[in-house]
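Hello Y.,

Per our agreement to keep a running log of every chain we model this quarter, I'm adding this entry. I've kept the format consistent with earlier entries: sequence first, then predicted structure.
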Amino acid sequence: MAQLKRSNRTKRLILLSLAVCFIVGGLWFSTTNAYTFAKGYFLYKLNDSTQEVIHKKAVAQPENVTDKKEELYPVRPKIGEEMGELMIPKLDATLPIFHGTNEEELEKGVGHFAGSVLPGEHDNSVLSGHRDTVFRKLGDVGVGDELVVRTSAGEFLYKVHKVRIVDADDRTVIVPKPRATLTVSTCYPFTFIGSAPERYILVAHLVSQKSA
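Predicted structure for the entry above:
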């Protein structure tokens, strides 16, 4: 009888111990999950807030670009007006730039396409010139060479990163660009007699600038 009582007592102790273990384990599991959930939720909200700030900055960017344009050129050049000079170190050449690409401007030097931004501004600034005058040796300029533009806003250093040969009526030459770009265009082939059917294009990115 005494042995049976001891056996029952032992079983109750085992069951009680198991119950305590289950309770403690359950509490540990639930608090751990709660902590993990809280941590995850906090990180999610933090990331969400960060993305919202980034989005707001991205939306505001066009406004900043406009401000930079106004700061660079408070006074815009007029058609036919000399607005600066293009230096091509590879050719040891310094060429005057006139605002506009009519024959009147191209006869005097390099023409700046009036529908494009001014040198140094964010977007695509397009310059053109005749292959038999100012750009006679432009074919010697290629990827990695430098182009320097000086205007009333300062000095802008560009580096050629692409050379293109396109049809004369290819309008992709003047399309907008996501960064400050200088596109220089002339007729091609250089030795062609008559109206050349193609264009030799240098596409350069702005790498540095010095304010006036």
